[in-house]
Amino acid sequence: MSNDNVAVLTTLNAAVLVIGTVQYTQMLRRSHEANHALSRERNVTRARLLDAMSRGVEPPVADLLALRDRRVRQAIPPSLLSLLWFVICFMLLSSQLAMLRWIGTADVGPAPELARFCYVTTPGAISALVTEGLLASSVRFLAERRRIRRDFWEQYSDQQREDLRAATRAARPPIPVHTPPLALANSPAPQPTTNPPIEPTTP
Known about the structure:
Elements: H1 3-54, H2 61-104, H3 112-153, H4 158-170, H5 182-186
Helix pairs in contact: 1-2, 1-3, 2-3
């Protein structure tokens, strides 16, 4: 560990900490909003099912399974992402505090353990930041593409979709026909060339 390394790592840690704090607060807010929405939806569904059961109607298993699947799908991802960013920010803060303590200690050695810890923490946080951005963009792109495709195909019947697939598989490109250019087709035929007669020479 050296002063130059501490300066570089401190700059990187500060940048990643700012982004990580913003990401953590956003994911935490989304997690709370999803949990609140699911709680309200769950209370409404439970009240409806309890009313049906009080009238002697057995609640459908499909409704219960759909509610459980929807709860897991909507609530877990924001919670996991917020937990991930909390761990990343905590590790970066620990690394930064350790470097500050190393700088403030008199006659300190190179501290190879601290250097290894910082070299693992900072690149790991940067990699997590880049990976999270790429994955989030990919998930949003695939979800939007799936939604557009679903909205389009819902307008047509299964038979219409199958007819279109069959027509697409049977389609073949047209065979090109080679025709002479218009200028060459309308140009007159070239005249035959004749050599001039050879006159006999007298001795």
